[in-house]
Design a protein that fits this description.
This protein is mostly helical. The protein has helices at about 5-20, 25-30, 35-45, 55-60, 65-75, 85-95, 105-120, 125-145, 150-160, 165-180, 180-190, 200-210, 215-225, 235-245, 250-265, 265-285, 285-300, 310-325. The longest helix is centred in the middle third of the chain and has 19 residues, at about 125-145.
Length: about 325
């Protein structure tokens, strides 16, 4: 899937925050939300695009999106795609001056911004995220009612977002379940499940929700999820195991461990598996098995990178699982 232009630069800025050594030009990762409006107009004038608020309004009234406006203002240039710096400035001016004209790119840019604030844990409340997800649901449902395929709608919207949108929604629902907000979590599961091609994640979220009132049924649901071998990823299996440390029945937990062992490729994944299994044994007063696993963790403290599938510690660890009477 190809990202739209604004989402592409948002993603580059996000990646640069994680890895400052990513090669790029300063304008590509600059947060224009922090730049004054006068300065933005000044930068455009330096590129030969002379505008003020009135002139901007005059041109913008003829357009429905910031992309249309950028195309109009840059038509005199031989290749508008070479003028992404100017496009980004025009986009930011549109965002500030035309809040009532919500194009998909503007909506998704704001959604990206709020997700970044949420991930940075700087929001005073979840209300901005809740509002954004409510608006997203309306957009999805309106298009679905018009006959567009659900997955197609979501893929189109995702192309305007720098974040993994469905991944964020799943993480946000998980956070709600962790904080005890089951009602809102249940609403979001029903709102978004049919737009997600990876429905197995929502099956897992439903199991987490049901576990609060019926752990036996939840374990049965997890067992069914584990049968979908081709759809299981290491991320999902680790989340299943994290959930199972509290609610897991021995056969289901052991089955998830076996699935995870078969997919191990990095030392980090193996350490995560060891830590979760140690926690599982700790909660069930199996200090002998917990101690054995903790010794493995200490031994591998400085290990990193990829892991050999025939690593002797993996074999030793695997033998602990079926032999344990948890």
């Amino acid at each position: 899937m190809n990202l739209q232009t604004k989402a592409l630069y948002n993603l580059l800025r996000l990646n640069r925050q994680t890895d400052p050594h990513i090669p790029c030009e300063e304008w590509q990762v600059e947060d224009l939300r922090l730049i004054s409006m006068d300065r933005l107009f000044e930068r455009l004038s330096q590129k030969g695009i002379i505008l003020d608020k009135d002139r901007f309004h005059g041109f913008a009234q003829e357009c429905d999106t910031p992309e249309e406006l950028a195309e109009m203002l840059l038509t005199e240039h031989d290749d508008p795609k070479k003028h992404d710096p100017e496009y980004l400035i025009i986009f930011e001016l549109w965002r500030r001056l035309y809040p009532e004209k919500q194009s998909l790119s503007i909506f998704c840019d704001e959604l990206d911004h709020r997700i970044s604030l949420y991930d940075a844990d700087v929001l005073e409340s979840d209300e901005p995220i809740q509002d954004a997800l409510s608006n997203l649901t309306e957009i999805l449902d309106e298009n679905a009612d018009a006959g567009v395929e659900p997955f197609e709608i979501f893929e189109t919207i995702t192309s305007y977002c720098a974040h993994d949108l469905m991944g964020f929604i799943i993480d946000f629902i998980s956070d709600l379940l962790d904080s005890g907000n089951q009602l809102y979590a249940s609403e979001l599961i029903e709102d978004f499940a049919h737009y997600c091609p990876e429905t197995i994640w929502f099956d897992f979220l439903r199991a987490r929700l049901i576990a609060l009132t019926d752990p036996v049924k939840a374990n049965h649901m997890i067992a069914l999820i584990l049968e979908h071998d081709a759809e299981l990823t290491t991320d999902l299996l680790l989340e299943i195991l994290r959930f199972q440390t509290g609610y897991g029945e021995r056969p289901v937990f052991a089955g998830a461990v076996k699935k995870m062992i078969a997919r191990l490729s990095t030392e980090e994944e193996f350490r995560d598996l060891l830590e979760l299994t140690a926690d599982y044994f700790h909660r069930r007063d199996r200090e002998d098995l917990e101690k054995t696993i903790q010794q493995m963790l200490v031994k591998r403290e400085k290990f990193s990178g990829s892991i050999a599938p025939h690593d002797p510690d993996i074999k030793s660890f695997e033998k602990l699982i079926p032999s344990s009477s948890i």
